[in-house]
Structure formats: structure tokens, C-alpha cells
Design goal:
By secondary structure, the protein is α/β, with parallel strands linked by helices. It is 17% helix and 22% strand. The termini are far apart.
Length: 153
């Protein structure tokens, strides 16, 4: 059979990739709708999943949690175009207070930062993505997990 041009056009097709959808969040990780389980910190942006290298896997509480966090941990949002209107930040098992320096850095990029526990952040992300909003998610898992760095990368 030969591929031939067609006169039909899929009006529902889009250049915008489908959003990543979270199926569930548990101690083993964040399970996506396609069955992939992500056990460490991740960022969802423009239909893509990025492994997110954060200090201590994002695990400590209170002021200690933010030791070592710099603007570099959010630098992905500097270069992406178009920027998401909302960044949903899931801070693990419970909501953690985000220091003003981080909040002002993200909002200075023109992105609204919404902070909540990871389960609620995942649900909020799913809902906003389904509505077609320009939304991103930065999610810390419920249990500590550091991504391993491979030599040479």
C-alpha cells in the first residue's frame, strides 16, 4: 500500500503536546496515566517530564528544607517559551513554607506559584492541564529519593 496525500484534515490535531497526567501519588512515587512511575523529584512542562535535581531530594522540613536551594533549581523556567502562567509546586507529604526569595524569583519570571502538598498539587495540575491552561508542575515525592548522576553526563 502506498501512502498518498489526503484531502482530510484532522481539525482536532494540535502542535501542542498532550499534557502529562498523574494517575496516583504514593510512597513508591508519582504514577503517570501511561503507567510510568517516577520515584524522585520531577517537573512537568509542555507535555514533557524532567528529572529534577534538588538538594537532599527536597527532604527536610522547615527552614532546613531550603538549605542549598538556589535560582539554578528553577532555571528551566527562565528559558522556556511560552512560560507557564501557573507553576504548581508539590512539597511532599505536607505543605511547606516557601521562602520569599524563591517565591519572588518565580513570580519575577511572570509565573504564579501555587504551593501545596504533592497529592493536591498533582490533582490541581491535572485539572488545570485538562482545562487547557499553560500550567507546569514541580513535584517532590512523598518519600526521599535522590536521582543518581551517571558519570559522563
Amino acid at each position: 500500500m502506498v501512502d498518498r496525500p489526503t484531502t482530510l484534515t484532522n481539525i482536532l490535531a494540535s502542535d501542542i503536546p498532550p499534557p502529562v497526567q498523574v494517575l496516583s501519588v504514593s510512597k513508591t512515587g508519582i504514577k503517570l496515566a501511561d503507567g510510568l512511575v517516577l520515584s524522585g523529584p520531577v517537573i512537568f512542562l509542555d507535555g514533557k517530564v524532567f528529572l529534577w535535581d534538588v538538594p537532599n531530594g527536597g527532604f527536610r522540613s522547615g527552614v532546613e528544607m531550603w538549605a542549598g536551594w538556589t535560582n539554578e533549581h528553577w532555571s528551566l523556567f527562565e528559558v522556556v517559551v511560552p512560560k507557564p502562567e501557573i507553576l504548581v509546586f508539590g512539597t511532599g507529604v505536607r505543605v511547606e513554607y516557601v521562602p520569599p526569595r524563591i517565591r519572588s524569583y518565580v513570580t519575577g519570571l511572570g509565573i504564579q506559584l501555587d504551593v501545596m502538598d504533592t497529592r493536591n498539587a498533582s490533582s490541581t495540575y491535572n485539572l488545570l492541564a485538562e482545562e487547557g491552561r499553560r500550567v507546569a508542575a514541580a513535584l517532590l515525592p512523598l518519600e526521599p529519593k535522590l536521582w543518581e548522576r551517571k558519570k559522563g553526563f
